[in-house]
Amino acid sequence: MPEPDGPSTTLPAPVSTGSGSVERIDTISLDDLAAGWPGAEPAFRGLSASVDRGDWLVVEGPSGSGKSTLLATLLGYLAPASGSLLINAISSSSLDLSAARARIAWCPQEGHLFDSTLRANLLLARARDDQPTDLELDSVLRSVGLGDLLDSLPLGLDTRIGSEGASLSGGQRQRVAVARTLLTRADVVLLDEPTAHLDASAAAALMDDLRSALADRLVIMVTHHATDTLPTDHRLRLGSSLALVG
After folding, report:
1. CB of 30 within 8 A of CB of 87?
2. Contact 65, 238 (CB under 8 A)
3. Which CATH number is 24-103+187-246's, of 2.102.10.10, 3.30.360.20, 3.40.50.720, 3.40.50.300?
4. What does the radius of gyration of the chain's CA atoms come to, in whole angstroms?
5. Spatial separation of the C-alpha atoms in residues 44 and 242, rounded to whole Å
6. Count of CB atoms within 10 A of residue 157's CB?
7. pLDDT (tens digit, 9 = 90+) per residue, 75-115?
């Protein structure tokens, strides 16, 4: 999970909500939303936006403006202080958020990679009784631009990648994390600063691959980099003066 924007440094327990089923997420809407960490004032107020499957919502704003708080709210760890979070036009307070959370995948700035094989790091995406096949692993790696890397590895999927993916470049590590996120089959993907530690050319290449690989998902991306956005994106700017742009 992202670090909180408020004084708390520990995630609260997931919000206890209703029992409405969530089998697929096609739309997420924020209606005059305010949210904050327990014991603190809301990190933001008055957020309004709506995004459908196949679209991107880009969330911008300075440090401390509430970006991580928004991600935690979308994941069901924080309840709205006021306003509403709507999933498929239904208030989150009426839904089983554990079921909703299973349809949402968070891809952090630095996805943790274990000192194991490429295969083992990808298999973490799904339960043991639902493991992806080698064909799925090969396909997802190629979809995020790692086909050349896979072809060059001496043992293919069974090549060890070192502690925190030490044998990979920064861009390759981020792509592996995205591939693992795609394997979850989530309807909604939350991208947290996906190009934060990449140079301009690597960032542009990663974003091109992300746009292609996530074309059928609902994507909410936190970023500080204007070059990560497209004119067709919905944009939400957090800060002292909240504004929906586009």
Report:
1. no
2. yes
3. 3.40.50.300
4. 18
5. 8
6. 17
7. 988 999 999 999 999 998 888 877 888 899 988 876 788 89
Q: Where is average pLDDT lowest: 4-18, 112-126, 204-218? A: 4-18
Q: Is the pLDDT of residue 36 over 50?
A: yes
Q: Calculate the CA dihedral of residues 6, 8, 11, 15 and round it to 10 degrees.
A: -70
Task: Indicate if the alpha-carbon torsion angle 211, 130, 11, 3 is positive or negative.
Answer: negative
| Domains of the chain, residue spans | 24-103+187-246, 112-185
112-185 topology per CATH: Rossmann fold (3.40.50)
Segment holding 84, helix H or strand E: strand 82-87
What letter represents residue 58's amino acid?
Answer: V
Task: With a cut of 70, say whether residue 13 has pLDDT above it.
Answer: no
